[in-house]
Amino acid sequence: CIPQGSIRKILVKESHEGGLMGHFGIEKTLLLLKEKFFWPHKKRDVQRFCSRCIACLQAKSTTKPHGLYTPLPISNAPWVDISMDFVLGLPRTQRGNDSIFVVVDRFSKMTHFISCHKVGDASNIAKLFFQEVVRLHGLPKTIMSDRDVKSLRATLRAILKGNKKSWDDYLPHVEFAYNRVVHKTTKMSPFEIAYGFNPLTPWICYLFLILLLLFTKKEHLELTLLRSCMRGFEIIFNPKQKNIQI
C-alpha cells in the first residue's frame, strides 16, 4: 500500500506512539511500517519524527551506557531457559505496586512484565511466577538473573508520561508492544518466534481504510476517517476509559 500526503505523517505517528506501540526507535518503527506500507523517503520521515519525539528525548536523556556483558548460553526452545529480574523504584500506584517483575524467554525474547510491590516476600513472587509464567508456558529448565532492563526503563518513561500513579494499568500495553516489534538479535518479533505469526494490531484497520480511500480518491475524507478511526482505538486501548457504550 502506498499512502499519500498527510496520511504518511499519521501512519508514522501511530507506528511510533500509537495505543499498542511503544515509542521504539527508528529501525523498529520502520520495520512496523514496512509490513504494510511503502512510500519514497519513508526512512527520512521516520527519522525526522522520532528525533523530535519529546517523550523519547526525555527518556533517553536519563539513561546511561551499559557496562561489559558476558554472553549467556544459547537456548534451543521457547520457555525452556529464562531470565528474571526486577525494575525497582517506580512510583507507587493506587494498587500499591512500585516494581515490575520481568521474565524473559531467552529463545524467543518474549517478555512478561508483572507488576508487584518491593516488600513482597519470596512466596508472593513464587505465586506470581506460577500464575503469570508457569500457567502459560510450563516450568523452565534453567533460570538466570538478567540485569539488562535499561531498555524497559526507557520504554516505560516514554509511554507512562503523566500516568505515574497508574502505570500498572498500561503495563499490558507495554508488554504487547515489546513482544510485537522485531528484536535486533533474532530479526523477528518474539510473537512470531513463539507462535509462528504476528498478532493483529490496529494497523490492519488502517490498511483497509487507506485502500478504501485510495479507490475513492477523496482527499478531504482521508483525515476525517483516519482521525475517527484513531479516536476509536484510543478509547478501546485506554484503560481509563470505562463503561463505553457501542
UniProtKB/TrEMBL annotation:
**Do you know which InterPro entries this protein is assigned to?**
Integrase_H2C2, RNaseH-like_sf, RNaseH_sf
Q: Which PANTHER family match?
A: RNA-DIRECTED DNA POLYMERASE, ZINC KNUCKLE (CCHC-TYPE) FAMILY PROTEIN
> One GO MF term, please?
nucleic acid binding
Q: What is this protein called?
A: Transposon Ty3-I Gag-Pol polyprotein
Integrase zinc-binding domain ranges (all copies): 6-61
Among SUPFAM superfamilies, the record links this protein to:
Ribonuclease H-like
Q: Which organism is it from?
A: Cajanus cajan
